[in-house]
Amino acid sequence: MYRVMLIDDDVPMLKVLQQMIDWEANNLQIVGTTYSSVKAMHMFEEVQPDIVITDIGLPQKNGIELADSFTSIKPDVRVIFLTCHEDFNYAQQAIKLKADDYLIKDQLTADQLQKSLEKSVTILKSRSGLIRWKTSNYNSQLFRQDLLKRVIDRAPSEMTMAYASQIGVSWNYPWFMLGIVNVQFANFDTRYKQSEYQLILYAIYNIALELSESFEGVTPILEKDNIAILYNFRMNLAQNATLHFSNFLQQLRSKCVNYLKIQPSIVSVSDKMELDSVGPAYQQILQGKLEFYETADYTITDISQSAAPIFQQAPQGFLNSCVSQLEQAVIKQDLDGIHSILLEIARNARESMIEPSDFAKELSFMLRGIELMFSNLKFEEDLFKYLTLSRTLSDSMELIERKLVQITESRDKQGTSTTQEPKLQVIQQYIEQHLADNITSIDMARYLYLNPSYFSRYFKRMTGLTFTDYVHQYKMKLATKMLKMSNQNLESMAIGLGYSDRTYFSKVFKKYVGTTPSEYKAKHTARK
């Protein structure tokens, strides 16, 4: 019997996987399940599974990094990835991961799961075609990150150049140019989930790495939230170095569009710099957000003249008047009005040079206010994360406008949805009757005598949400009322709502409400 381990930070998904097929009938045994990537490492060493099914978009350590660690411990382990979106084939082409299969959560059927497992078992039996991530490639990333750290720390140039040579990076010339590649979230959000952000960043890095083989002197380095591109060159009348680097960045952008269907934003320094100037320039751009009120593709031709902008702290109540205006525009379904108000907000921010992080906070407060106005509608928490990370004003405003338009359009559809879909009331009653249970879409489908795959598609079409998200939202609304009106402790509240683990309950609460249960209770207790 082959041993299987399941990893997903969405606990109900773990239950769905366990219920989906008859594991023993397929000569398979589930030997471990966990929602934590940290726990997954310990569990893997303990249970030594033959097959691992893991979500890619895990916090702390993503599925790719876990798989790399697993194969270094047990080279013949088989890996099957779970992903959230339909167009993963784009990222798949870019990343070139060697896994047995990629399964899309929202479309997963028992037949698909069974076929993927059969593929893994066949490989295990033959012991051929083993998954072997190139550990040297992974180590190469770490070495390059260490190289960038030396550049930022302004280690002696000769020592840094020598280290670069040791790790296979050829920096033979005196001059450097710099590029910093970021994700545009308004573009990213239309195709991917927030949990897949690191995966897509990794995909862009792989594209840059492969492309750099055709561009002498170009060194891509993967960082936490961006990709640094260092170009080492010499002054040469036979070659225009600025054009060479510009061509690389243009091709990188084009390949990201072709493979990933997203447009990256790129800040480049075309000024020639000595190595000890590269680190300060890199930090100045990242920390100062030099491009925030510029364009997504911003070129600095003279770094010595590009001092950090003098940003201003956002005045108290900076966006207060806009909340009521936007609420009225949403109520009236006035899309032109929404657009005009957001243009005015952007214009005021640019004229006042509001500090970007302050501006992101003010925008988040404004959106929370609109949420409270329309309690039956909710912005996804991804939006608030993107606003914090966004590098440009245009990216932030496009994100917000699209979300407000979606809310306006959903309000237009809401009036008829209840009468058209009578089963929603039955579903809500079932949830209320099973609050203390960990309900999955399979449980609900069985209750309604529906095929689980059909029910998942039916429910998504009816509500715009996955069943798991709907249940979490429903329970978190109840939790907020309970925190306001009772002195019940968090442990008993979590159990009463079907969350056996207080930590997981708090994590879900923060995801859907925006604060931890303790913070929420303290805030509303203070108001009494």
From TrEMBL:
InterPro entries: CheY-like_superfamily, Homeodomain-like_sf, HptR, HTH_AraC, HTH_AraC-typ_CS, Sig_transdc_resp-reg_receiver, Tscrpt_reg_AraC-type_HTH. It is found in: Cytoplasm. One of its GO terms (biological process) is phosphorelay signal transduction system. It comes from the Bacteria. Residues 425-523 form the HTH araC/xylS-type domain. The modification 4-aspartylphosphate is found at residue 55. GO terms for molecular function: DNA-binding transcription factor activity; sequence-specific DNA binding. The keyword ATP-binding does not apply. GO terms for cellular component: cytoplasm. Residues 3-120 form the Response regulatory domain. Keywords: Cytoplasm, DNA-binding, Phosphoprotein, Transcription, Transcription regulation, Two-component regulatory system. Its main location: cytoplasm. This is Response regulator. It comes from Paenibacillus lutimineralis. The lineage of its organism: Bacteria, Bacillati, Bacillota, Bacilli, Bacillales.
